[in-house]
Known about the structure:
The protein has a single domain (13-223), classed as Vaccinia Virus protein VP39 (Rossmann fold, 3-Layer(aba) Sandwich). The chain has six helices and seven strands. The chain has helices at 13-32, 47-59, 76-86, 101-110, 147-157, 191-198, and strands spanning 65-70, 92-98, 118-120, 132-137, 159-169, 204-210, 215-223. α2 packs across α3 (76-86). The structure holds S-adenosylmethionine. The site of S-adenosylmethionine (SAM) has 22 residues, from α1, β1 and β2.
Amino acid sequence: MGTKCNEICMMTPNELEDWYTRLNAWLEPAYLAHDEPWKQSGMSGPADRWTALRKPVADCIDRAGSFLDIGCANGYLLECCLAWTAERGIKVVPYGLDLSARMIELAQKRLPEYTEHFFVGNALHWTPPQRFDFVRTELVYVPAEYEREYVERLRTHYLTPGGWLLIALYGEGASDPERGILAGCHPTRHLLERLAELGIPVIGSRDGYDAVKGRRTRVAIVPAGEV
Ligand SMILES: C[S@@+](CC[C@H](N)C(=O)[O-])C[C@H]1O[C@@H](n2cnc3c(N)ncnc32)[C@H](O)[C@@H]1O
């Protein structure tokens, strides 16, 4: 597959485009088939499981600032993060990016005060119109061989100096990390081990646990890189 196969075999531009077409064709109808806000964000719910597994993202935000959710889907995580950080007196200004124009429309309806803060694009290539104090992502938004380049791009081009990249793994420690991800993604079982393997510095992390299904979330805090 692809070019530049000396060490890591990258996809050709066409293969990469096809990969994202398949990703969107898989996720978009699955999310749009539901009315519950967590299901429109790819999580089976109900609300208390959503809170257990998503609040660790908000727990990483320790000061006021702008927050970009990459892969914001219907904007529900942003809406919840505004509420969860407000409980600690922290004011967050939300922004969202997603591959899917239909998901972005839902997010704009959910957060109508912020319609101008939502963008359709692929984070692997998108050029942000500004920098953000906090940016959330997952490694599975790119094929395995792009993970390092992707994270470095976010660190150097998306974050304000001193900003934090929040990398979430919603299946930390899972026995079957291949489940629920597109072929070509790296099946990460332990987030901090994977980031160490990629040479990405981590300055902290927050965890969540859902006792109903025994699932774990880990969110790693990665500092902005030097441009
Ligand atoms: C599971 S939802 C995440 C919802 C919410 N942000 C959360 O953390 O629970 C994943 C979303 O990421 C989007 N996505 C995947 N890869 C992306 C990329 N490279 N750039 C932008 N959005 C991407 C998908 O379209 C999908 O809506």
